[in-house]
Amino acid sequence: MRRILGIALAILLVGGVIAAIAIGGKKPEGTATKTVRGVIGSEKSEFFRDPDVVKALADKGYTVKTETSGSWAMDQLALKEFDFAFPSSSEPATEIEAAAGVKGAQNSKPFFSPLVVIARANAAKVLAGHGLARMTAKNSGTLLLGPFLKAAAEDKTWQALQGGTSAYPELAGTVFVKTTDPTTSNSGALFLATASNVANNATVVSDDAGIDRTAPLMKKLVSVQGALEQSTDDPFRSFISGSGEPLILAYESQVASLLQQKQVTGDVGDMVVLYPDTTVNSPHTFVPISEKAKELGSLLATDPKLRSLVVRHGFRPTEGVAEFTAATAPHTAYLNPGLTGIRQVGAPTVKVLMALAARAKG
Questions:
Q1: What is the residue-wise DSSP string for 151-199?
Q2: What is the dihedral of CA 99, 101, 103, 104, to 10 degrees?
Q3: Is this model's pTM higher than 0.85 or not?
Q4: Angle, CA 142 vertex, CA 136 and CA 148 arms, to 5°
Q5: How many other C-beta atoms are found inside a 10 Å radius of the C-beta of residue 321?
Q6: Are 151 and 346 in contact (CB under 8 A)?
Q7: Which of 120, 237, 129, 135 is nearest to 171 (CA)?
Q8: What is the DSSP-derived secondary structure letter of residue 36?
Q9: What is the pLDDT of residues 54-89, one digit of tens each?
Q10: In this structure, how many other beta carbons lie within 10 angstroms of the beta carbon of residue 297?
């Protein structure tokens, strides 16, 4: 019996050695060799969680772990603990580079997404009926910022716009766009950049006089909202769930991703996507902090597989506009692929924009 057990154990040991050689001698395909940790805007979290993105990155040698933060708050983090930062526009990237001690880093802008205002169908109808918006398709249109800001300055209510009737009882109180906190979140900050440009005679606010001139209106836009969210993801999810305010600031990518995943049903199918007639471009800017992540940003821009996944998540590749147009062709009832009729303007400096945001909240 002992002899039989000894032979059996010897066979098992030999088999184990052979198996170990077989496993260790060949590296499985798609196995990442570098693990990098980054801080990102919340609107990109689903992209990095997507199993197809995880696999595509692994095929290129990366395991990417992420945490979310408001883009304008990233420079306050312990950035040395991260390999990269990925804010939602180029403006906070400068502050991040300085805070991380990598000023002049070779950052990249692999994709972008314009800001939009998503509206309940009845809210869009009321706005269009009073010259604050213009419909271009069943579920899309243009928010006319000049008239809209005039209404905001006059504290217009939904009841006033409806002529005192209660045709849409769900629309009540002061008319405003629900945004994020402009002192920490990119979307909220860029909404102020856009609104201040319109309020400053179509000119970028660049000095104290411009801040003083536009700050009272910026404060109205923010103070009427009450508590402010830290990321665009929260108000967007509230809207999609059927709750939340009738007008929500979002990124086009959030809507485009939803449409491509065919998740637009029921009440959400009646949403209207309003593109502000003036906008500040929002290129998502990859800032490498460690050497390990140095090539990741350009990889997101140039790798065909990753770029197709960028489009699937609703973003516009910087070098692949045609890809976005083709992918979203079935959804032009909601989207404006060519950004037709949109005036793109520059953003104020970081110092001026943060001063506007502070005055708006103060």
A1: HHHTT-BHHHHTTT--SSTT--SB---B-B-TTT-HHHHHHHHHHHHHH
A2: -140
A3: yes
A4: 140
A5: 14
A6: no
A7: 120
A8: E
A9: 999 999 999 999 999 989 999 999 999 999 999 999
A10: 22
